[in-house]
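URGENT: need a sanity check before tomorrow's submission.

F., can you look over the Exonuclease record below? I want to be sure the sequence and structure line up before it goes out.
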Amino acid sequence: MEYPHFIALDMLTQDEDTYPIGIAWSLTDGQIKSTLIAPDDLWQAWPSSVAQDLGYSRDQLLIHGVPCAEVIRELDYDVHTDQLWVGTELSMQAHGLHQIYMSCQVECPWHLEEASQLYPEYTEAELLDELQHLAELQQLDLRYAEAQVQAWLHLHAHLHRQTWDA
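Structure tokens as predicted:
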């Protein structure tokens, strides 16, 4: 079975001027790649309360995150289509992905679509209910990008009556 390329980003806040701090995407074989993102030099300092809520400080992301250029290089290597699928918050996810590319002064080549469009026979509410159910069964915390991508892979396999085992 070939899987769609699902993508999710962990964002600093839900504000318009936010930045991505983590990213995860799926490969067509069902594997997931994920990483923390090192803040770009131009991205503003974060309030300590926000860093506490996320579980990461700016310093931790500078140490453990990868630069945006490496994220771009890896994503470009892995994805050979111009379309990526996001579970929720399409505009926020698109904003985060564009921030990564803008930090390297490169235009983002990806077109993001809502993953629900892959399954027109289901309503968005039905898909989200089933996604939540599968996430609970797998003990996935959907606040995080990697868990979101994993849940969508499970849902895709479930809707195609196969077992996701990557």
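My own read: The two ends are 11 Å apart (CA to CA). The chain has a mean pLDDT of 90. If you see anything odd, call me.
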